[in-house]
Amino acid sequence: MNRRTMLRSAGVGVVGLLAGCSGDGGDGSGGETGSDGWAGGTNVAMTDSLKFEPETLTVNVGDTVTWKTVDSVAHSVTAYEEKLPDGAAYFASGEFDSESAARQSYPDGSVGADETYSHTFETAGEFPYFCIPHESGMRGTIVVE
């Protein structure tokens, strides 16, 4: 099993775990529901309308956010490296260690239809990110409290 397959499998497992833990007693901080009902909680939908849904998501330190392409167009999740909080780990689908590596390697790291990418946020702050091929309009922010 190669690394990409392993990461996809782990992402699907996390999605299943999160779905099993969801309930009606949430605090409402998870954002809006995506086009197919997938977004919410700590999930972000990536859509054919070239949007992250929700565009801004607030989570707690230690939470894992999972992005899923809910339609047919492949996307990426790529942090703006220079805008990350001090001491925060860099994140990008494809597990690249820098923004330049993610940009240079695209389409490696793309998240295809029904695929997921997950990242655990261990540092408080605002984490702006974007989709490499749709950067002009497809941007989002994770706010970690």
From TrEMBL:
Name recorded for this polypeptide: Copper-binding protein
Cofactor(s) this protein cannot do without: Cu cation
Assigned keywords, A-Z: Copper, Electron transport, Membrane, Metal-binding, Periplasm, Transport
Pfam families referenced in this protein's UniProt entry, alphabetically: Copper-bind
Subcellular location: Membrane; Periplasm
GO cellular component terms, semicolon-separated: membrane; periplasmic space
SUPFAM superfamilies linked to this entry: Cupredoxins
Main location (coarse class): membrane
Residues at which Cu cation binds: 75, 131, 134, 138
Family annotation (InterPro entries): Amicyanin/Pseudoazurin, BlueCu_1, Cupredoxin
Note describing how the cofactor binds: Binds 1 copper ion per subunit.
GO MF terms, alphabetically ordered: copper ion binding; electron transfer activity
Residue ranges occupied by any Blue (type 1) copper domain in the UniProt entry: 46-145
Native source species: Haloarcula limicola
The keyword Signal is annotated on this UniProt entry: no
Gene3D superfamilies in the cross-refs: Cupredoxins - blue copper proteins
